[in-house]
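// run 5 | inverse folding | seed 20
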């Protein structure tokens, strides 16, 4: 194809020269015309050749640990530093998108957490410092499995058993493999729903890592679980809203499970306070729903007037600050439908372990939350596998289940914008 270029040039030139005569002025005009055409053709040919020999140019095939992206972030970002992590070695952006699958069914109506509104709120809080006996285990490495829903769930329940009774449960490490292999309401390594995963903990309970070690292998069956261990159950779970509500729940009872959206720059976060750059690219599925990931909120803080959540992730200890991150709390998201900025979404889930000592609950009204909750859940939609619906209805005595027509959401996506 490249050979065609001079031929076209000559032909065009010749034709044009014959037509217009041969004055010096005209010749220059015709020549520049020919050069323009030649340049356009060369660009097209070059573009095609680059696409053929270098398919890496497609965005989803870009490496997560892209050197250029990392350098660009480090040159402009004042709040956080970027770097490659071992977890994403050889992963492309497309590989991360393929791991979408965490969502909400929008078919159950979890209770609102009854947070203590009278508690004095510290400016900074770190659950690891408040309950050191309960945070002795390293962070998880989820591997190539959409398991953060199960990892964050099991790990939050473990923390909360220990917070209630550190003498008995400081070594407790409940295994996410229990839900990955045994929770028929969810989808194992293909994902799970943050609002229905708790039913399995309530009904069947969780066994420990020793009994059923976590592997990122989608083919591990429930029968591989040991059968000489009494699973630990939760007695309830609840949903908590707003920055203030989430903080109070964490302060009072321990970590919560938080859904987050993913941007390309979060994947290479190394240290500091992560706040999406203006150039950040949000990861979306083929159907343009944001890819949802689950983390655990263990505290908060503020530095240089930038408030942040302290979160635990499951991308190994090499990612972020030893596996943890500080993620900016974005208070200036005025439009509640504008989820482009808030990486940590505005709601979290909190389980109540069966050893929870019930205190006198605050009955202070938090009336505004109900409407806010409905609004947020309306933004989120997902489906349940048809065969699971009966099971769910049976388990969920709550008559408040939404009557939304969510059937069109045939994939494991969460519709948070649009
Ligand atoms: C990444 O790819 C390189 C080259 O193919 C290979 O040598 C290396 O072992 C891979 N790393 C991982 C973690 O798979
Ligand atoms: C993850 O596993 C799938 C197959 O289940 C494979 O297609 C994909 O390439 C794997 N991704 C990585 C990053 O290893």
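// decoded
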């Amino acid at each position: 194809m490249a050979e065609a270029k001079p031929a076209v040039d000559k032909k065009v030139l010749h034709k044009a020269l014959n037509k217009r005569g041969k004055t010096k002025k005209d010749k220059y005009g015709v020549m520049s015309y020919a050069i323009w055409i030649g340049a356009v053709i060369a660009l097209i040919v070059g573009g095609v050749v680059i696409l053929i020999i270098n398919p890496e140019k497609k965005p989803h095939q870009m490496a997560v640990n892209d050197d250029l992206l990392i350098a660009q972030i480090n040159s402009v970002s004042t709040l956080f530093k970027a770097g490659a992590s071992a977890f994403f070695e050889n992963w492309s952006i497309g590989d991360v998108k393929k791991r979408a699958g965490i969502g909400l069914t929008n078919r159950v109506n979890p209770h609102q957490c009854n947070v203590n509104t009278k508690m004095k709120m510290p400016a900074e809080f770190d659950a690891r410092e408040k309950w050191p006996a309960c945070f002795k285990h390293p962070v998880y490495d989820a591997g190539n499995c959409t398991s953060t829903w199960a990892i964050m769930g099991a790990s939050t329940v473990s923390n909360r058993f220990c917070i209630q009774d550190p003498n008995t449960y400081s070594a407790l490490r409940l295994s996410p493999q229990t839900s990955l292999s045994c929770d028929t309401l969810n989808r194992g390594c293909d994902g799970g729903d943050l609002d229905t995963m708790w039913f399995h903990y309530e009904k069947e309970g969780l066994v420990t890592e020793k009994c059923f070690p976590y592997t990122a292998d989608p083919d591990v069956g429930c029968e591989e679980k040991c059968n000489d261990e009494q699973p630990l159950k939760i007695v309830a779970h609840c949903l908590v809203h707003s920055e203030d509500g989430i903080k109070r729940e964490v302060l009072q009872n321990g970590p919560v499970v938080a859904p987050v959206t993913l941007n390309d720059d979060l994947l290479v976060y190394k240290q500091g306070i992560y706040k999406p750059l203006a150039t950040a690219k949000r990861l979306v599925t083929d159907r343009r729903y944001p890819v949802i990931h689950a983390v655990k909120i263990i505290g908060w803080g503020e530095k240089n007037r930038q408030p942040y959540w302290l979160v635990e992730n499951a991308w190994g200890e090499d990612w972020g600050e030893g596996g943890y991150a500080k993620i900016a709390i974005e208070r200036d998201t005025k439009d509640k439908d504008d989820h482009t900025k808030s990486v940590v979404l505005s709601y979290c889930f909190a389980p109540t372990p069966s050893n929870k000592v019930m205190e006198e609950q605050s009955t202070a009204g938090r009336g505004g939350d109900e409407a806010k909750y409905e609004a947020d859940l309306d933004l989120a939609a997902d489906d349940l596998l048809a065969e699971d619906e009966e099971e769910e209805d049976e388990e969920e005595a709550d008559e408040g289940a939404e009557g939304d027509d969510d059937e069109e959401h045939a994939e494991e996506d969460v519709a948070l914008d649009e």
